[in-house]
């Protein structure tokens, strides 16, 4: 079975050549989202890592919704931070609020030297479709 490449109309404009998500055998790989406003992609980024994390999570929800999934289907997340020591705790506080208590996906968090559009945070996801009943 060939992968399914998803471009979600209401999701943020891509900042590079990629699909918003690619699906294979029930697994959905969601491209890392930036803290850009899907309704105004040229607007300045939100100020601070908390606001940027919230915008990234909202963008991820848009992509997941576009393929018929929610954050409840996420099995793994990867977080990239440009200011790891400064922003790690604040990002975590915002991030965990998007998941049900005790239902956090597995995760890796990586400090990086830079991200597209000058973002402080980027997050990508792996989700799994439920087995058909």
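^ Assign residues to that structure.
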């Amino acid at each position: 079975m060939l992968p399914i490449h998803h471009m979600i109309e209401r999701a943020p404009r891509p900042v590079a050549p990629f699909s918003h998500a690619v699906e294979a055998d029930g697994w959905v790989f969601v491209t890392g989202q930036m803290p850009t406003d899907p309704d105004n992609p040229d607007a300045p980024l939100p100020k601070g890592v908390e606001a940027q994390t919230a915008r990234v999570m909202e963008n991820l929800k848009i992509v997941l919704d576009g393929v018929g999934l929610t954050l409840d289907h996420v099995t793994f997340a990867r977080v990239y931070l440009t200011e790891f020591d400064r922003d790690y705790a604040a990002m975590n506080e915002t991030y965990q609020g998007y998941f049900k208590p005790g239902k956090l996906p597995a995760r890796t968090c990586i400090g990086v030297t830079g991200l597209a559009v000058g973002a402080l945070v980027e997050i990508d996801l792996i989700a799994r479709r439920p087995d058909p009943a």
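The chain has two helices and six strands.
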